[in-house]
Amino acid sequence: MTQLEKNLAALPAHCYSILNTTGELIIIKRGETGYFPTEGYTENEHCTFEQLVVILNNRMGVSPAQRFAMDMGSMFGWDIPGAHPDVHADRVVA
Questions:
Q1: How far apart (Å, rounded) are the C-alpha atoms in residues 58 and 52?
Q2: What is the per-residue pLDDT across 14-47, written as a single tens digit (0 to 9) for each?
Q3: Which of 58, 87, 75 is nearest to 20 (CA)?
Q4: What is the H or E stretch that residue 25 is in?
Q5: How confident is the model at residue 90 (pLDDT cuts 50, 70, 90)?
């Protein structure tokens, strides 16, 4: 099994994340470069986008390690070691 096949097999179809440059809520799709904007979500005094990412990903069963692996894959390629959740197993989301 290639690194790409291992990585993709360990990831969900999509997840939510935060675009580092703007702080906006985004969707990352497994195997696709870049990100997709979301609609209908707003940040407010009761819930930040980061909290919303955790809530939405938890509902779908997406772990923080999978989210960070998908961040890496979408930016740097899905065949790199960083696109596998095992690399991010110790990541904690505040």
A1: 10
A2: 999 999 999 999 999 999 999 999 988 888 888 9
A3: 75
A4: strand 25-29
A5: confident
For residue 65, what are the contacts with CB-CB under 8 A and spacing of at least 6? 85, 86, 87, 88, 89, 91
Distance of alpha carbon 87 from the chain centroid: 14
51 φ/ψ angles, rounded to the nearest 5 degrees = -65, -40
pTM: 0.91
Long-range contacts of residues 80-87, Cβ cutoff 8 Å, at least 24 apart: 80/3, 80/7, 81/3, 83/7, 83/11, 84/3, 84/6, 84/7, 84/10, 85/10, 85/11, 86/10
Each domain of the chain, given as residue ranges in start order, spans: 3-88
Q: Is 15 left (phi over 0), alpha (psi -120 to 50) or beta?
A: beta
